Amino acid sequence: MEIIFEKDYLKELYESGKAKNKKHRFQPAVVKKYIQTIDKLRAAKYTEELYPIRSLNYEKLIGDKNGLESVRVDKKYRIEFISSVEGEEPDTLTICSIIELSNHYK
């Protein structure tokens, strides 16, 4: 998948392992798992390839987050994103727009 980061801190976390903004500081273990999860998203060609990877716990969200999809980073955090398919068969491209790294128990 093609990965697009909607917020600067998400791109900084992926590329450098830390964000400049003090509001978006995470434990090193969370950042490491975040990078690994983004790499798994990047390796998949379609969202259907995420279903068999049980550790990701891929799901389409409902309720006030209707329209978003998520994968698990660890037991506390998840990555919320929107995926879209562009192009014609067989040259389709899935674009994954990363919206948020959220602590879904807050």
- What's the N-to-C terminus distance? 29 Å
Largest sheet, strands/sense/barrel: 5 strands, mixed
Which strands sit side by side, in order, in the main sheet? 1-5-4-3-2
Label the overall shape.
globular
Structural description of this entry:
- The chain has 106 residues and is an alpha+beta fold.
- It has a 5-stranded mixed beta sheet with strand order 1-5-4-3-2.
- A hairpin with a 6-residue loop joins strand 4 and strand 5.
- The longest helix has 16 residues.
Quick rundown:
The protein has 106 residues and is α+β, with helices and mostly antiparallel strands. The protein has helices at residues 8-16, 28-43; strands at 2-5, 59-60, 69-72, 77-86, 93-103.
Supply database-style keywords.
five-stranded mixed sheet, globular, 106 residues, 5 strands
Which helices and strands occur, and which strands form pairs?
Elements: E1 2-5, H1 8-16, H2 28-43, E2 59-60, E3 69-72, E4 77-86, E5 93-103
Parallel strand pairs: 1-5
Antiparallel strand pairs: 2-3, 3-4, 4-5
